[in-house]
């Protein structure tokens, strides 16, 4: 009876695709471990793009892309596994440009090697950097945080007064200065002595001479 149940479980496992085989020894290791962290994500995107353009030759594109940044250190088994993941993502419809696949690869690589995800920021920046930040936006990576806008300080007090004074030009302030200068000159110039009395005397003398001219 025990044998019967064991055979039944094996048949059900085979029918539903359950993994009842021996544990994978490679699962304890890191895929593409030899690839430097700062170029892992960008090289992954490149491998996906090249593989998609070559009708799904992801194993070959893996060897070329990762082999370029880690010559002689990329195992063939790594690229076979990478190709399997790429094919699976493509069949499920979320391969895209590789953002999801490469994001998971970076997180797995960081976890297995006990490295901060900040070390996986693409060194080239640009489009790869944008895709990286979108794929790992929930991880709060400092390099992906928006830069705060610089504060704007308005001119107040003496600065504003000086600006307004320049704006007047030949206006109010200039005119005030002219009025003060004119008043100063007026006060400093002595007034001429009054000769109104002498002028009046001359007029009466002339009239008196005319009246007595025929006498």
Summarize the structure in words.
The structure is a single chain. This protein is mainly alpha-helical. It has helices at residues 2-16, 37-53, 58-69, 76-92, 99-113, 126-135, 158-168, 172-188, 196-211. Helix 2 runs antiparallel to helix 5. It is rod-shaped. Mean pLDDT is 74; it is low at 1-28 and 160-171.
Shape: rod-shaped
Question: What is the makeup of the main sheet?
Answer: none
Proportion of residues in extended strands: under 5%
Count of individual helical segments: 9
- Class derived from helix and strand content: mainly alpha
Rg over alpha carbons: 48 Å
Q: SSE string, helix = H, strand = E?
A: HHHHHHHHH
Number of DSSP E strands:
0
Question: Could you list the spans in which at least 5 consecutive residues all have pLDDT below 50?
Answer: 1-28, 160-171
Rounded to the nearest angstrom, the distance between the terminal CA atoms is 180 Å
State mean pLDDT (0 to 100 scale): 74
Percent of residues in helices comes to 55-70%
Quick take:
Helices cover 60% and strands 0% of the residues.
Topology, please?
Elements: H1 2-16, H2 37-53, H3 58-69, H4 76-92, H5 99-113, H6 126-135, H7 158-168, H8 172-188, H9 196-211
Helix pairs in contact: 2-3, 2-5, 3-4, 5-6
Keywords:
0% strand, 9 helices, mainly alpha, 215 residues
């Amino acid at each position: 009876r025990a044998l019967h149940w064991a055979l039944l479980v094996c048949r059900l496992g085979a029918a539903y695709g359950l993994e009842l085989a021996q544990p994978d020894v490679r699962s304890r290791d890191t895929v593409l471990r030899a690839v430097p962290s700062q170029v892992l994500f960008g090289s992954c995107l490149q491998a996906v793009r090249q593989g998609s353009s070559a009708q799904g030759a992801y194993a070959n594109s893996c060897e070329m892309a990762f082999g370029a940044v880690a010559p002689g250190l990329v195992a063939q088994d790594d690229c076979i596994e990478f190709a399997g993941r790429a094919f699976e993502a493509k069949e499920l419809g979320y391969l895209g440009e590789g953002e999801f696949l490469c994001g998971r690869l970076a997180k797995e690589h960081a976890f297995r090697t006990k490295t901060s995800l900040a070390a996986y920021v693409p060194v080239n920046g640009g489009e790869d950097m944008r895709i990286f930040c979108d794929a790992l936006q929930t991880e709060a990576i400092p390099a992906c945080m928006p830069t705060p806008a610089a504060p704007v300080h308005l001119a107040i007090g003496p600065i504003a007064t000086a600006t307004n004074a320049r704006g007047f030009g030949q206006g109010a302030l200039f005119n005030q200065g002219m009025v003060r200068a004119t008043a100063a000159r007026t006060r400093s110039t002595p007034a001429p002595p009054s000769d109104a009395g002498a002028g009046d005397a001359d007029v009466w003398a002339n009239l008196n001479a005319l009246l007595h001219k025929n006498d």
